[in-house]
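The instructor's notes for this session suggest beginning with a concrete chain rather than abstract definitions. Hand out the sequence below and ask the class to guess, before any prediction is shown, which regions might be ordered.
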Amino acid sequence: KTPTFKDYYFIHWESKMHARILMCWLLCAGIGECIGNLIQNEYFHTAMNMPMTCITFFAMNYVSSFALISKNMKTDVLKLENIATNIKTEASAITLNQILSKKMAMDELVAHLFTEYSIECLVSFIEIEQYQKWIMDNDFDVTTKDVHHKPLNNVKLIDAHDDIPQSLMFENISSDSDDLLQSAKLMAFKLYQKYIEHGSELEINISSALRKQLKNIVSDKQKLMENINVSLNELLLLFDKPKNEMRLLLNYSHTRFKQKTEYTKIVGMFANTPTSHLRRVSISIVNNL
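After discussion, reveal the predicted structure:
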Protein backbone atom coordinates (compact mmCIF):
# COMPACT_ATOMS: atom_id res chain seq x y z
CA LYS A 1 0.00 0.00 0.00
CA THR A 2 1.29 3.46 -0.90
CA PRO A 3 1.92 5.51 2.28
CA THR A 4 -0.29 8.54 2.93
CA PHE A 5 1.10 11.91 1.81
CA LYS A 6 -0.06 15.01 -0.05
CA ASP A 7 -0.39 13.58 -3.53
CA TYR A 8 0.49 16.46 -5.87
CA TYR A 9 1.42 14.12 -8.75
CA PHE A 10 -1.42 11.56 -8.38
CA ILE A 11 0.85 8.67 -7.40
CA HIS A 12 -2.00 7.12 -5.38
CA TRP A 13 -4.35 7.35 -8.34
CA GLU A 14 -1.74 5.85 -10.69
CA SER A 15 -1.02 2.87 -8.41
CA LYS A 16 -4.75 2.19 -7.95
CA MET A 17 -5.33 2.24 -11.69
CA HIS A 18 -2.39 -0.13 -12.25
CA ALA A 19 -3.79 -2.48 -9.61
CA ARG A 20 -7.22 -2.49 -11.26
CA ILE A 21 -5.74 -3.17 -14.69
CA LEU A 22 -3.68 -6.08 -13.33
CA MET A 23 -6.73 -7.47 -11.55
CA CYS A 24 -8.66 -7.37 -14.83
CA TRP A 25 -5.76 -9.09 -16.57
CA LEU A 26 -5.60 -11.83 -13.92
CA LEU A 27 -9.37 -12.32 -14.11
CA CYS A 28 -9.31 -12.59 -17.92
CA ALA A 29 -6.28 -14.91 -17.78
CA GLY A 30 -8.09 -17.17 -15.28
CA ILE A 31 -11.21 -17.26 -17.44
CA GLY A 32 -9.12 -18.01 -20.54
CA GLU A 33 -7.34 -20.85 -18.69
CA CYS A 34 -10.66 -22.37 -17.67
CA ILE A 35 -12.10 -22.12 -21.19
CA GLY A 36 -8.91 -23.63 -22.65
CA ASN A 37 -9.13 -26.60 -20.29
CA LEU A 38 -12.81 -27.14 -21.07
CA ILE A 39 -12.39 -27.18 -24.83
CA GLN A 40 -9.02 -28.96 -24.52
CA ASN A 41 -7.34 -26.70 -27.05
CA GLU A 42 -3.65 -26.14 -26.32
CA TYR A 43 -3.46 -23.09 -28.59
CA PHE A 44 -6.47 -21.28 -27.11
CA HIS A 45 -4.64 -20.16 -23.95
CA THR A 46 -1.76 -18.71 -25.99
CA ALA A 47 -4.10 -17.06 -28.52
CA MET A 48 -6.06 -15.35 -25.74
CA ASN A 49 -3.23 -14.58 -23.31
CA MET A 50 -0.95 -12.75 -25.77
CA PRO A 51 -3.41 -9.98 -26.81
CA MET A 52 -4.65 -9.63 -23.20
CA THR A 53 -1.07 -9.16 -21.98
CA CYS A 54 -0.39 -6.57 -24.70
CA ILE A 55 -3.60 -4.70 -23.88
CA THR A 56 -2.73 -4.77 -20.17
CA PHE A 57 0.74 -3.31 -20.66
CA PHE A 58 -0.62 -0.73 -23.11
CA ALA A 59 -3.28 0.32 -20.55
CA MET A 60 -0.66 0.64 -17.76
CA ASN A 61 1.61 2.75 -19.97
CA TYR A 62 -1.33 4.89 -21.06
CA VAL A 63 -2.29 5.56 -17.42
CA SER A 64 1.31 6.49 -16.53
CA SER A 65 1.70 8.84 -19.50
CA PHE A 66 -1.27 10.37 -21.35
CA ALA A 67 -3.91 9.91 -18.61
CA LEU A 68 -1.60 11.21 -15.88
CA ILE A 69 -0.51 14.21 -17.96
CA SER A 70 -4.15 15.07 -18.73
CA LYS A 71 -5.06 14.84 -15.05
CA ASN A 72 -2.14 17.09 -14.07
CA MET A 73 -3.14 19.62 -16.74
CA LYS A 74 -6.67 19.80 -15.37
CA THR A 75 -5.27 20.36 -11.89
CA ASP A 76 -2.97 23.10 -13.22
CA VAL A 77 -5.94 24.83 -14.82
CA LEU A 78 -7.77 24.72 -11.48
CA LYS A 79 -4.70 26.16 -9.76
CA LEU A 80 -4.55 28.90 -12.36
CA GLU A 81 -8.23 29.66 -11.85
CA ASN A 82 -7.68 29.84 -8.08
CA ILE A 83 -4.73 32.20 -8.59
CA ALA A 84 -6.79 34.37 -10.92
CA THR A 85 -9.65 34.40 -8.40
CA ASN A 86 -7.30 35.41 -5.58
CA ILE A 87 -5.77 38.19 -7.69
CA LYS A 88 -9.22 39.40 -8.76
CA THR A 89 -10.42 39.42 -5.14
CA GLU A 90 -7.40 41.39 -3.99
CA ALA A 91 -7.65 43.75 -6.96
CA SER A 92 -11.30 44.55 -6.26
CA ALA A 93 -10.35 45.81 -2.79
CA ILE A 94 -7.76 48.32 -4.06
CA THR A 95 -9.09 51.86 -4.35
CA LEU A 96 -7.99 54.81 -6.44
CA ASN A 97 -6.89 56.65 -3.28
CA GLN A 98 -4.60 53.77 -2.37
CA ILE A 99 -2.95 53.87 -5.80
CA LEU A 100 -2.39 57.63 -5.57
CA SER A 101 -0.78 57.15 -2.16
CA LYS A 102 2.00 54.90 -3.53
CA LYS A 103 4.45 56.16 -6.16
CA MET A 104 5.07 52.87 -7.99
CA ALA A 105 1.34 52.12 -8.16
CA MET A 106 0.63 55.60 -9.47
CA ASP A 107 3.32 55.18 -12.14
CA GLU A 108 1.51 52.06 -13.39
CA LEU A 109 -1.78 53.97 -13.47
CA VAL A 110 -0.15 56.80 -15.43
CA ALA A 111 1.13 54.30 -18.01
CA HIS A 112 -2.40 52.90 -18.35
CA LEU A 113 -3.94 56.37 -18.73
CA PHE A 114 -1.50 57.12 -21.56
CA THR A 115 -2.85 54.09 -23.42
CA GLU A 116 -6.37 55.50 -23.02
CA TYR A 117 -5.29 59.04 -23.96
CA SER A 118 -6.79 60.35 -20.74
CA ILE A 119 -3.80 61.53 -18.72
CA GLU A 120 -5.43 64.98 -18.34
CA CYS A 121 -7.93 63.41 -15.92
CA LEU A 122 -5.20 62.56 -13.44
CA VAL A 123 -3.09 65.69 -13.96
CA SER A 124 -6.06 68.05 -13.51
CA PHE A 125 -7.30 66.08 -10.49
CA ILE A 126 -3.93 66.34 -8.75
CA GLU A 127 -3.39 69.99 -9.61
CA ILE A 128 -6.85 71.02 -8.39
CA GLU A 129 -6.20 69.08 -5.19
CA GLN A 130 -2.91 70.92 -4.73
CA TYR A 131 -4.69 74.22 -5.32
CA GLN A 132 -7.32 73.44 -2.69
CA LYS A 133 -4.69 72.23 -0.23
CA TRP A 134 -2.65 75.40 -0.80
CA ILE A 135 -5.66 77.57 0.08
CA MET A 136 -6.46 75.53 3.18
CA ASP A 137 -2.84 75.44 4.37
CA ASN A 138 -2.31 79.17 3.89
CA ASP A 139 -5.64 80.36 5.28
CA PHE A 140 -4.70 82.77 8.06
CA ASP A 141 -5.89 82.84 11.68
CA VAL A 142 -9.21 84.71 11.76
CA THR A 143 -8.96 85.53 15.46
CA THR A 144 -5.92 87.77 14.99
CA LYS A 145 -5.98 89.03 11.42
CA ASP A 146 -9.50 89.34 10.05
CA VAL A 147 -12.64 89.34 12.16
CA HIS A 148 -14.80 89.33 9.03
CA HIS A 149 -13.10 86.28 7.57
CA LYS A 150 -15.35 83.20 7.37
CA PRO A 151 -13.86 79.75 8.11
CA LEU A 152 -13.21 77.71 4.97
CA ASN A 153 -15.47 74.85 4.04
CA ASN A 154 -14.13 71.40 4.74
CA VAL A 155 -12.89 69.92 1.46
CA LYS A 156 -11.95 66.24 1.45
CA LEU A 157 -8.48 65.73 0.00
CA ILE A 158 -6.70 62.51 -0.91
CA ASP A 159 -3.60 61.31 0.91
CA ALA A 160 -1.29 61.46 -2.11
CA HIS A 161 2.33 60.32 -1.86
CA ASP A 162 5.00 62.95 -1.17
CA ASP A 163 6.88 62.40 -4.44
CA ILE A 164 4.20 64.07 -6.56
CA PRO A 165 5.86 67.28 -7.82
CA GLN A 166 4.21 70.55 -6.94
CA SER A 167 2.44 72.36 -9.75
CA LEU A 168 4.41 75.03 -11.59
CA MET A 169 1.55 77.45 -11.02
CA PHE A 170 2.78 77.90 -7.44
CA GLU A 171 6.00 79.50 -8.66
CA ASN A 172 6.32 83.18 -7.70
CA ILE A 173 3.02 82.97 -5.82
CA SER A 174 2.88 84.74 -2.50
CA SER A 175 1.33 83.01 0.51
CA ASP A 176 1.34 86.23 2.56
CA SER A 177 -2.02 86.81 4.23
CA ASP A 178 -2.52 90.15 2.50
CA ASP A 179 -1.99 88.67 -0.97
CA LEU A 180 -3.60 85.28 -0.37
CA LEU A 181 -6.90 86.07 -2.07
CA GLN A 182 -5.25 87.63 -5.11
CA SER A 183 -2.80 84.74 -5.40
CA ALA A 184 -5.68 82.27 -5.22
CA LYS A 185 -7.50 84.20 -7.97
CA LEU A 186 -4.40 84.16 -10.18
CA MET A 187 -3.98 80.40 -9.78
CA ALA A 188 -7.68 79.87 -10.47
CA PHE A 189 -7.24 81.71 -13.76
CA LYS A 190 -4.23 79.50 -14.62
CA LEU A 191 -6.23 76.36 -13.87
CA TYR A 192 -9.04 77.59 -16.08
CA GLN A 193 -6.66 78.30 -18.96
CA LYS A 194 -5.00 74.93 -18.63
CA TYR A 195 -7.96 72.57 -18.18
CA ILE A 196 -11.32 74.31 -18.63
CA GLU A 197 -10.93 76.74 -21.52
CA HIS A 198 -12.25 75.37 -24.79
CA GLY A 199 -9.38 74.22 -27.00
CA SER A 200 -6.78 74.14 -24.22
CA GLU A 201 -4.03 71.52 -24.52
CA LEU A 202 -5.26 69.52 -21.53
CA GLU A 203 -8.97 70.29 -21.84
CA ILE A 204 -10.94 68.01 -19.55
CA ASN A 205 -14.27 66.40 -20.32
CA ILE A 206 -16.94 68.22 -18.29
CA SER A 207 -20.48 69.31 -19.04
CA SER A 208 -21.00 72.41 -21.17
CA ALA A 209 -23.11 73.98 -18.39
CA LEU A 210 -20.27 73.62 -15.89
CA ARG A 211 -17.72 74.91 -18.39
CA LYS A 212 -19.91 77.95 -19.07
CA GLN A 213 -20.36 78.59 -15.34
CA LEU A 214 -16.59 78.58 -14.77
CA LYS A 215 -16.04 80.71 -17.86
CA ASN A 216 -18.33 83.41 -16.50
CA ILE A 217 -16.34 83.58 -13.26
CA VAL A 218 -12.71 83.00 -14.23
CA SER A 219 -12.14 83.53 -17.96
CA ASP A 220 -11.54 87.31 -17.69
CA LYS A 221 -8.35 87.70 -15.64
CA GLN A 222 -8.68 91.43 -14.96
CA LYS A 223 -12.33 91.15 -14.03
CA LEU A 224 -11.55 88.27 -11.68
CA MET A 225 -8.67 90.06 -9.96
CA GLU A 226 -10.82 93.18 -9.39
CA ASN A 227 -13.92 91.30 -8.25
CA ILE A 228 -14.25 91.99 -4.51
CA ASN A 229 -17.21 89.61 -4.19
CA VAL A 230 -15.14 86.49 -4.85
CA SER A 231 -14.13 84.91 -1.53
CA LEU A 232 -11.63 82.23 -0.59
CA ASN A 233 -14.49 79.84 0.07
CA GLU A 234 -15.76 80.32 -3.48
CA LEU A 235 -12.27 79.82 -4.90
CA LEU A 236 -11.77 76.74 -2.75
CA LEU A 237 -14.94 75.15 -4.11
CA LEU A 238 -14.70 76.64 -7.60
CA PHE A 239 -13.11 73.56 -9.20
CA ASP A 240 -14.62 70.98 -6.85
CA LYS A 241 -17.21 69.76 -9.38
CA PRO A 242 -14.66 69.35 -12.21
CA LYS A 243 -12.38 67.55 -9.76
CA ASN A 244 -15.17 65.15 -8.75
CA GLU A 245 -15.97 64.48 -12.42
CA MET A 246 -12.31 63.66 -13.03
CA ARG A 247 -12.35 61.35 -10.01
CA LEU A 248 -15.33 59.56 -11.54
CA LEU A 249 -13.55 59.17 -14.90
CA LEU A 250 -10.41 57.97 -13.12
CA ASN A 251 -12.44 55.35 -11.28
CA TYR A 252 -13.79 54.13 -14.63
CA SER A 253 -10.22 53.92 -16.00
CA HIS A 254 -9.11 52.18 -12.81
CA THR A 255 -11.87 49.57 -13.25
CA ARG A 256 -10.77 48.90 -16.83
CA PHE A 257 -7.14 48.72 -15.67
CA LYS A 258 -8.08 45.93 -13.25
CA GLN A 259 -8.99 43.71 -16.22
CA LYS A 260 -5.40 43.84 -17.56
CA THR A 261 -2.61 41.45 -16.58
CA GLU A 262 -0.38 44.45 -15.76
CA TYR A 263 -2.61 45.14 -12.75
CA THR A 264 -1.07 42.15 -10.94
CA LYS A 265 1.94 44.42 -10.30
CA ILE A 266 -0.30 46.78 -8.35
CA VAL A 267 -1.94 43.90 -6.49
CA GLY A 268 1.53 42.73 -5.47
CA MET A 269 2.31 46.16 -4.01
CA PHE A 270 -0.65 46.00 -1.63
CA ALA A 271 -1.01 42.25 -1.02
CA ASN A 272 0.52 40.50 1.98
CA THR A 273 1.82 37.79 -0.36
CA PRO A 274 3.57 39.26 -3.43
CA THR A 275 1.55 38.35 -6.51
CA SER A 276 4.58 38.71 -8.75
CA HIS A 277 5.32 35.12 -7.71
CA LEU A 278 1.73 34.09 -8.41
CA ARG A 279 1.93 35.79 -11.79
CA ARG A 280 5.13 33.88 -12.66
CA VAL A 281 3.46 30.62 -11.59
CA SER A 282 0.33 31.36 -13.65
CA ILE A 283 2.40 32.23 -16.72
CA SER A 284 4.44 29.03 -16.40
CA ILE A 285 1.23 26.99 -16.12
CA VAL A 286 -0.24 28.65 -19.21
CA ASN A 287 2.96 28.03 -21.19
CA ASN A 288 2.83 24.34 -20.32
CA LEU A 289 -0.82 23.85 -21.32
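Then share the key points. The CA atoms of residues 170 and 187 lie 8 Å apart. Residues 141-149, 273-278, 285-289 have pLDDT under 50 and may be disordered.
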